[in-house]
Structure formats: C-alpha cells, structure tokens
TrEMBL record, chain A:
GO biological process: transmembrane transport
Compartment(s): Cell membrane
Entry-linked Gene3D superfamilies: MetI-like
Protein topology in the membrane: Multi-pass membrane protein
Nucleus is among the record's keywords: no
Primary localisation category: membrane
Entry keyword annotation includes Transmembrane helix: yes
ABC transmembrane type-1 domain boundaries: 64-272
Official protein name in the record: ABC transporter permease subunit
From TrEMBL, chain B:
Subcellular location: Cell inner membrane; Cell membrane
Keyword RNA-binding: no
Protein name, per record: ABC transporter permease subunit
GO cellular component: plasma membrane
Keywords: Cell inner membrane, Cell membrane, Membrane, Transmembrane, Transmembrane helix, Transport
Biological-process GO terms, alphabetical: transmembrane transport
Organism encoding this protein: Paenibacillus anaericanus
Every ABC transmembrane type-1 domain range: 62-252
Family affiliation: Belongs to the binding-protein-dependent transport system permease family.
C-alpha cells in the first residue's frame, strides 16, 4: 500500500515541471491581465473604468470598429473566394488536386512581415503594379494607397484565402455523389441542388471557418505593424502601444482591450469547434478527403477531434 | 463537361497566380540590380546575397533565432513527452481539462499573451522582461497546442495504454516499456511535432517583438528593422526564410505520408 502511494507521488512529480511552466507563463499572466483590466489607471482598487473607456472613448472605439470591419471584410472575401476555389479543386484529378493544395498550403506560410514586404514591392509607392498602371494610364488605380484601409484589407485577404481553402475543402467531400444524382433524377437543376442540398450541407463548415478567419484577422498584428506601423488605428496595434509604447503606457487599459480581443477569438474558435462537430456527422462516411499533414495532426484516429483546425495560414505573427 | 471544366481551370489558374505573385516579386527583387522605373529589373545581380552572408548582424540574428527556437522546442519535448504519457495512461479522465488548457494559446492571439507576460514579468520579484528566459517561456506556451496534439495523437495511434498493459503482463516495468516499446513507435510523430513547432516559432513576430524586441534580434525582427533601410537585403532574407520554411513543410508532408503508410501495416 505504501509502495503504491509512493509510486503515485512519483507520477505526480513527473507532471511538476509542466505545471510550473504552465502556471508561470500561462495562468499567472492571464490572471494578471484579467485583474489588471478591472483596475483604475493607478493600478489599485476594483473599477470598470477601463472597459467603459474602451467602449465609449471615440479613439479606442474607432480602433475596435476598424478591426472588426477589416476582419469582417477580409474573412467574407476570403471565405467566398476560398469556397469557390475549394469546390473547383475537388473536380480535378487527384494528382493535380494535391499539387494545387500543396501550393496553396505553401503560400499560407507566407505571412506577417515578409508578406507585407512583398506587397510593398508589388503595390507600394514604387511597386511594380503601381508603375505598370501608371504607364498604362489606368487612373482608377491612381487613388489606390497600400498604406490605407483598402490596402490593408487587400493584404489581409491574401492570407485568409489559403486558410479558407484548407478548412473548407474537406467539407465538400461530405456531399455524396449519389445525392446529386438522385436530385437530378428527380428533376432538380444544379442551382436547385446547391440551394437545397449542397449549401446546407457545407453551411456549418463555412460558418465555422468564417469564425476562424475572423479571429485570425482580429488578432493579426505583424502585417499591419509592418505596413502602417502605429499610424493606422487597429485594436492589436493599439494594445501594443498602450502596453509597450514609447510615449505613455496605460497597461490597465491595454489589458481591458486585450481581454475584449481574447473574448472574440475564443468565441470564434468555440463556434468553429461546435460547427466542426456538426460537419463530422456528414463527413464521417466512406468518402475520404485528402488533408494536409497539419490538419491530420489535429485529428485522432478514433474520432474526429472537435478542434479540427489547421494551424497553417494563421497569420504567423 | 469540358466547357464546364474550363471555368474551373481559369479560376484555379488565377488563384495560383494571385497566390504566387507576391513570392515571385520578392524573388525578383532579391536578384535585381537596377530596378527603378521599369516593369522588370534592368540588371541582375547576386550581390545582395553576398552582402547578406557577410552581414554580421544578420548572422547573429540567424543564430539567435536558431538557438531560441531550438531550446524552446527541446524544452517542450523534454517536458511534454512524460506529461502527455502520464496523462494518457494514468489520468485519461482529466484529459478534457488538460486539453482545454493546452489549446488556450491557440485560441488567444499572440498580442494578448504578450500583454499578460509583460504585466507579470516587467517588474516585481521576477523581472525577466527583455531576457531570453521570458521568450523561451512564452515560446513554450505558444507551441503547446502543436506539441500536445502531435504527441497525444501518436500515442493514441499506437494505442500506448494497450501496449503498456501487454508489456506489463510480460513482466516489464512501465518505464522500460515506455523507453523500449512506445518511444520507438511514436518517433515519426515526435519528428512531425518538432518540425511543426520549430517552423511556427521561426516565423514568430508579435511575442518576440513585444517581449525582447529592443534587446534581442531574431530573423523576423532583423527583417522588420531592415525593411526601411534596404529593400533588396530584406527580400533576400524573406526568400531565404521562405525557402527554409518550405523545406520544413516538405519534410512534414513526407513524414505525414510515411506515418500514414506505417499505419496500414
């Protein structure tokens, strides 16, 4: 009996290093951020001031608004293009299909600082296309400015598309060929098939992916930081300058904004995992979908893991 | 049918062009000599690569990246391997709690994690802000989801609990069984986790910049600092970085296929 208890203690001892690191670098910082967000500027006493400021002060509210808008636009564009492309990819032969997916996955690694830089070469003040359009006299693009809201959205869309393809692609394999044949036999047009069967079938996957894309864009920092620095008012940029700014820091307010940002991301990831569970009901059939190794990593062999999500393409910031 | 397929071909061609264009532009810029007001570079040169390989600051940042990422991944492996093993074998009922904690760093953006870490370590008893220690700790947490999922999946794939039972019935202790039976079996899974974690950390910018940005220059930080100084140098670094990540991804895909093949046996 005594020996058994000793062994149990030894086993628990094996978990100690993990516990220490988790407490030190995850739990304590999260706790410190949460408590900090409920303090006033001098750092003592409970107060909701920071949240009130974050949501009513025009400057900070604008940052939240800008972030939400850019995240919404870029993820909507990303999911529409991504879903159309993913469907097209499913129609190619397996060899071509894999090559296209490989290329799309490859570009999803191209994010953050290098991506911002590539766009400066393409569309910056002296960019290739800027010069090209100027030469051709295409004045529509003359007003385009990479370092503005439009430019930023354009770059965001770039890193959303490969991620959208990666996440939506498997769900198309949930639509069985027999369903399509059956609906055509019963006289449905392709459009009717997609509206009544196809889209409802992949809707959970689309919604879940939209959540991930939204969170991805909300938390994106490196791309915006490299392109517009602190000049453009975005939530992530605002948080960073409130906490580590050169002029004045307001860590409590930064914490409150960070908590708000974290809440949106966690909600988005949660929605995705709920939706993935729904999709699993469709896709856990005989039709097999090829997946990237990263997606596979997040699935167990026995059951489809609830947080089936790829880590590629996350703005690796 | 062929006319229908035509639309899809065009769509995908445009997509690939769109996705590859920034890469191609960066590559062109890295090899371009004179390129001011023309569509394509006027002259070509390898000078930027030569300059970069002679740049002591770049070499130092490369070394910083490698050793910081290497130590973090190694630390994570040393700690996570026994932890995942113990949780899978002895406390399977706690797993959901464990998992939700480990997944947290994935759900929360890096900028948020940085805020908490700065608050905790910029002052007080453990003021390690700006040192490699805080970064390694932050990196450890950042790669937790990848390490945990990778290790756990490979342990479940080889059915570690059943293997252990079998080994114990044959009179071997659990530790020996782990070392001689389980470890060799999950080696491919470990390799994938290491590669993935390493490539994630190599591209990390937010945590690095906010925690140690002023003190330590990693490749990403160096790239950012150089962005405004020399575009050509920056693009050579971007291309090198991308090639490196590409090699790692190809390695991952190969390992993934290998594991899949191994499973069928």
């Amino acid at each position: 009996m005594k020996k058994k208890r000793g062994r149990r203690a030894l086993i628990l001892l094996g978990l100690l290093p993990f516990a220490l690191l988790i407490i030190g670098f995850l739990l304590v910082p999260v706790f410190s951020m949460l408590t900090g967000s409920f303090m006033n500027d001098s750092g003592d006493g409970f107060s909701l001031d920071q949240y009130v400021t974050a949501l009513t002060n025009a400057f900070y509210f604008k940052a939240i608004q800008n972030s939400v808008l850019i995240a919404l636009f870029s993820s909507l564009a990303g999911i529409i293009i991504g879903a159309l492309a993913a469907y097209s990819i499913t129609l190619f032969s397996p060899a071509v299909r894999n090559r296209i997916l490989l290329m799309s996955n490859m570009t999803s690694n191209f994010a953050g600082i290098p991506l911002a830089f590539a766009y400066i070469i393409l569309l910056g003040n002296n960019g290739i296309f800027t010069l090209l359009f100027h030469e051709w006299g295409w004045d529509i693009f003359a007003g385009f400015n990479l370092y503005s809201w439009t430019g930023l959205t354009l770059v965001y869309v770039y890193f959303q598309i490969p991620l959208a393809i990666l996440l939506v692609y498997p769900s198309f394999y949930g639509i069985r060929e027999q369903w399509r044949e059956a609906s055509y036999l019963l006289g449905a047009s392709p459009v009717k098939f997609w509206i009544t069967i196809g889209l409802p079938c992949i809707a959970p996957a689309l919604l879940g992916t939209l959540g991930i894309l939204f969170a991805n864009a909300m938390g994106a920092y490196a791309t915006a930081y490299a392109l517009v620095g602190s000049n453009y008012n975005l939530l992530a940029v605002r948080i960073s300058s409130l906490v580590t700014g050169d002029v004045v820091t307001r860590p409590q307010l930064g914490s409150a904004l960070a908590v708000l940002l974290a809440a949106t991301s966690i909600a988005a990831v949660w929605i995705n995992s709920m939706m993935t569970r729904k999709v699993a009901a469709f896709t856990s059939g005989p039709s097999e979908s090829p997946q990237s190794p990263r997606t596979r990593l997040f699935q167990t062999r026995k059951k489809v893991s609830t947080d089936q999500k790829s880590l590629t393409g996350r703005e690796s910031a | 049918m062929t006319r229908k397929m035509g639309y899809h071909r065009i769509l995908i061609s445009f997509l690939l062009l769109y996705l590859l264009l920034p890469l191609i532009a960066t590559a062109l810029y890295a090899f371009a000599g004179k390129w001011d007001h023309t569509i394509l570079p006027e002259t070509w040169t390898l000078d930027w690569f030569r300059q970069m390989s002679l740049d002591a600051r770049f070499l130092e940042s490369l070394w910083n990246s490698f050793y910081l990422c290497g130590i973090s991944v190694l630390l994570s492996l040393i700690i996570m391997l026994p932890t995942v093993f113990i949780v899978t074998v002895y406390f399977p009922r706690w797993e959901f709690l464990f998992k939700s904690m480990v997944i947290l760093p994935y759900a929360v953006p890096g900028i948020v994690a940085a805020v908490g870490l700065i608050r905790t370590y910029s002052s007080g008893p453990i003021a390690i802000s700006g040192t490699p220690y805080i970064l390694i700790g932050a990196y450890f947490v950042a790669i937790l989801p990848y390490m945990y999922q990778g290790l756990r999946n490979s342990m479940l794939t080889v059915d570690a609990p059943a293997l252990l039972d079998a080994a114990e019935m044959l009179g071997v202790s659990k530790i020996t069984a782990f070392r001689t039976v389980i470890l060799p079996n999950i080696l491919p899974g470990i390799t994938v986790s290491i590669l993935l974690s390493f490539s994630v950390l190599f591209g990390e910018f937010v945590l690095t910049n906010m925690l140690v940005g002023g003190q330590i220059e990693t490749v990403q930080i160096y790239l950012y600092n150089r962005l405004s100084e020399s575009g050509h140098l920056a693009s050579t670094i971007a291309i090198l970085y991308f090639s490196f990540i590409l090699l790692v991804s190809i390695g991952l895909t190969k390992m993934g296929n290998f594991m899949k093949g191994g499973l069928r046996l």
